[in-house]
Known about the structure:
This protein has 119 residues and is mainly β. The protein has one helix at 27-33, and strands spanning 2-7, 10-15, 39-41, 52-54, 59-64, 71-72, 77-83, 86-91, 96-101, 108-109, 114-118. The chain has two domains: 2-33, no CATH class; 39-118, CATH 2.40.50.100.
Amino acid sequence: MKLRITIDGTTYEADVEVVDEGEELEESEASQYEEPIPAVEAPDAGAGNGKEFRSPVMGLVIRVEVEAGQQVKAGQRVMVLEAMKMQTHVTAPRACKVKCVHVAPGDPVKVEQLLIEFE
Length: 119
C-alpha cells in the first residue's frame, strides 16, 4: 500500500505494509525493527596506570555497578557508558579495591574524564 503524507508543504510517498493484529512478523523482518544495542568493551587506553579509569568516549553514564571500598576482580564490569546508542562496558583493569567513583547514572561524560579511581 502506498501512503502520501505532507509535512510543512512538502509531500512524501511511502510504501507501507499492513500487518493484521494476530499476524507475526518473520524473524528476519522483526529484527529490522527491534535491533539490539550492541555493547563493546572499553579500550585498555582508558585504564592509564591501572589506578584510574578515564572515559574512552563522550556520552552518558547508564549504570555504575560498584561503589567506593568495593573489591573487584580483573575484568569485572564496573560501569556502562552510552555514546551514539552504543553501550560501552567499562571493566576493572586488575583485581583491586575501588577508591572513588566520580560519576553517577545520568551524568554526561567527556573523553578522558576521570570516572573511577582504584587502589
